[in-house]
């Protein structure tokens, strides 16, 4: 009986091995794990040469692809095809990817004919589309209702359609810079139904006036590098949340702006850039909320205090490279700017330091003017000044008063390079960290003017008329902190940078 039982068990085992796993479904892995299928899931399908780091992500960047890859899973949510050679997207391949949330086509060769509108009808979950640096001549006529970010920059787009960006309640950012858009190419209802757009970039196009009917939700509007000569009345009346407005490098004149252009409803505006235009005066009606006003590279001849009244929160005023002459900044013209931190006036024709500057001024930048005199009280109104730059003016030692710097107890950086000084100025503030005197006419260096400058780290005397014998004994004795001198020039206390807005 024992032998019979053993024979029956062996026969049963041979039968199971002969029949294979189909004979006892579900049992082979438990009883005979070495005979069953692997417990690991099957590998995910991924297009050749692409990578699929996650189940919902397909990355085909920079593969020099000329044909849309096949074998993309229908469940893909993020597809990147940037930096390839694609000229078109097949409708049947794109439309089946109904789960897509991000489509990145940046830097290809796709034309408007190669981007079928019908394909987007199936992409009902698409939130981010990047088609910058392609060859689109017109924008897609229809983009999904779910869109949040659209980047069509650096194409050849000449026309936008009502449903390209209209009726997109979640749309937040639109980038259309470096195209060929004119006012005729942007319909009045281009953003109808899209009430959440906060960033719109239309720079480097061909607009001749500020487009009307922009989204009322805007916080940042870029219109630099266009042909704008006029801001129509009421064009910005709905943009009550606008914080940054960039209009530099246009053709704006005083006639293209009126007293209501900026004052009507722009109660949140903090940054206004009107540089590189043709303005002859400071615009009227500037918002009191401004923190940065950039008016450089215009034709402004005179600044009137009335135009700046109420702007107590202005921190940065940039007036460089205008036509401000001897009467361009009358005494007290900037007095309304109580909180002014930095004033840039370089590249004008000023003959004196402006009188009655704001008391809290921290940095005064005046190089490349015609300042020939520095009186005892010229800087008396700015005791908090930390940086003073008077480089490349017409100052001589005889016309720099010995008490010109006596009230500047906070001064840390003084730049007098490129003038006509023959000796060190007297009464230098003891807190100085950097003193630049290169390219003057210095003939002697005595210890008295440098006495007490125990914090001075950098002293530049390059390109003067000094010889070794012209440096008096004990000149360097008190300069214990000095690190750089002679021909070595570095900026120890640079101008405070403009806020990153």
From TrEMBL:
GO terms for cellular component: extracellular matrix; extracellular space. It comes from the Eukaryota. Keywords: Leucine-rich repeat, Repeat, Signal. PROSITE patterns: LRR (PS51450). SUPFAM superfamilies: L domain-like. InterPro entries: Leu-rich_rpt, Leu-rich_rpt_typical-subtyp, LRR_dom_sf, SLRP. Residues 1-23 form the signal peptide. Pfam families: LRR_8. This is Podocan like 1. It comes from Otolemur garnettii.
């Amino acid at each position: 009986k024992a032998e019979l039982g053993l024979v029956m068990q062996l026969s049963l085992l041979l039968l199971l091995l002969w029949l294979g796993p189909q004979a006892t479904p579900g049992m082979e892995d438990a009883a005979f794990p070495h005979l069953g299928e692997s417990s690991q899931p099957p590998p995910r399908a991924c297009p050749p040469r692409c990578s699929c780091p996650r189940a919902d992500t397909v990355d085909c960047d920079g593969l020099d692809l000329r044909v849309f890859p096949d074998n993309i899973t229908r469940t893909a949510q993020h597809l990147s095809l940037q930096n390839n050679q694609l000229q078109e997207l097949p409708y049947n391949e794109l439309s089946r990817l109904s789960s897509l949330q991000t489509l990145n086509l940046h830097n290809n060769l796709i034309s408007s004919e190669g981007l079928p509108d019908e394909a987007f009808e199936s992409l009902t979950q698409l939130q981010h589309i990047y088609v910058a640096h392609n060859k689109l001549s017109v924008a897609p006529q229809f983009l999904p209702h779910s869109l949040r970010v659209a980047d069509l920059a650096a194409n050849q787009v000449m026309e936008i359609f009502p449903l390209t960006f209209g009726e997109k309640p979640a749309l937040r950012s639109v980038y259309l810079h470096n195209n060929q858009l004119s006012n005729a190419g942007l319909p009045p209802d281009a953003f109808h139904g899209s009430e959440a757009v906060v960033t719109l970039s239309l720079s480097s196009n061909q607009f001749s006036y500020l487009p009307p009917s922009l989204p009322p939700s805007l916080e940042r509007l870029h219109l630099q590098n266009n042909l704008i000569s006029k801001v129509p009345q009421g064009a910005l009346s709905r943009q009550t949340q606008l914080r940054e407005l960039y209009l530099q490098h246009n053709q704006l004149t005083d006639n293209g702006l009126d007293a209501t252009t900026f004052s009507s409803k722009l109660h949140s505006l903090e940054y206004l850039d009107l540089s590189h235009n043709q303005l002859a005066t400071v615009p009227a009606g500037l918002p009191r909320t401004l923190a940065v006003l950039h008016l450089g590279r215009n034709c402004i001849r005179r600044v009137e205090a009335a135009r700046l009244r109420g702007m107590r929160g202005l921190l940065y005023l940039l007036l460089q490279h205008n036509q401000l002459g001897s009467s361009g900044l009358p005494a007290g013209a900037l007095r309304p700017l109580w909180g002014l931190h930095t004033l840039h006036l370089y590249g004008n024709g000023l003959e004196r330091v402006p009188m009655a500057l704001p008391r809290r001024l921290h940095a005064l930048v005046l190089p490349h003017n015609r300042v020939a005199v520095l009186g005892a009280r010229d800087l008396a109104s700015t005791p908090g000044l930390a940086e003073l730059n008077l480089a490349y003016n017409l100052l001589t030692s005889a016309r720099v008063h010995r008490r010109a710097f006596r009230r500047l107890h906070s001064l840390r950086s003084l730049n007098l390079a490129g003038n006509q000084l023959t000796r060190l100025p007297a009464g230098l503030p003891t807190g100085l960290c950097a003193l630049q005197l290169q390219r003057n006419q210095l003939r002697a260096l005595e210890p008295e003017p440098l006495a007490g400058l125990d914090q001075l780290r950098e002293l530049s005397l390059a390109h003067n008329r000094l010889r070794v014998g012209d440096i008096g004994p004990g000149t360097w004795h008190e300069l214990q902190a000095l690190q750089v001198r002679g021909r070595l020039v570095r900026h120890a206390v640079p101008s405070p940078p403009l806020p990153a807005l």
